[in-house]
Amino acid sequence: MTHDPNCIFCKIVAGQIPSKKVFEDEDLIVFHDIHPWAPVHILIVPKAHIVSHAELTEEHQALAGKMMVLAPRLMKELGVTGGFRTVINTGRDGGQEVMHLHMHVMGGPRPWSKG
Ligand code: 5GP
Ligand code: ZN
User: Where are the active-site residues found (predicted)?
Assistant: First the structure.
């Protein structure tokens, strides 16, 4: 599995940086965002170092589908009943700050700090 020793999310995958983990399997890790924009704000992260959504190809279809399907399941498990927002920032102009693919999933009662 691809791993970038300088990448903060690869370090979280490797357990070198602590995180508040909500889910983990062989392909994905999910943890709470350190600066939440909403009462519940998790990041669904592939364990492999994929830089961004722009790098996804047909070989990633199952992985991408798994990320998408996991979001509602985890929101339900975390007690989010009023809906949620999913965001994937891609590249510089997409506002991506951590260059390791991740899906933000945010929910909980409004108002939220962003939006
Ligand atoms: P981006 O702008 O790349 O889509 O979002 C990166 C997100 O990762 C931000 O919301 C930021 O708060 C979160 N983040 C950055 N570093 C860490 C960290 O070390 N731990 C956790 N849990 N979240 C982080
Ligand atoms: Zn990485």
Answer: 102
Pocket flag, ligand 1, residue 19 (CB < 6 Å): yes
| Domain-located, residue 49 | yes
Can you tell me the distance from the alpha carbon of 12 to that of 14, in angstroms, rounded to the nearest whole number? 5
Kindly give the confidence (pLDDT) of every residue in the chain, 115 residues in length, as a single tens digit, with 9 standing for 90 and above: 899 999 999 999 999 999 999 999 999 999 999 999 999 999 999 999 999 999 999 999 999 999 999 999 999 999 999 999 999 999 999 999 999 999 999 999 999 988 6
CATH number for position 56: 3.30.428.10
103 close to 86: Cβ distance less than 8 angstroms:
yes
ipTM: 0.99
Whole-angstrom distance, CA of residue 57 vs CA of residue 51: 12
Of 10, 16, 24, 35, the one to substitute when testing ligand 1's pocket (max ligand atoms within 8 A of C-beta) is 35
Nearest CA to ligand 1 atom 12: 35
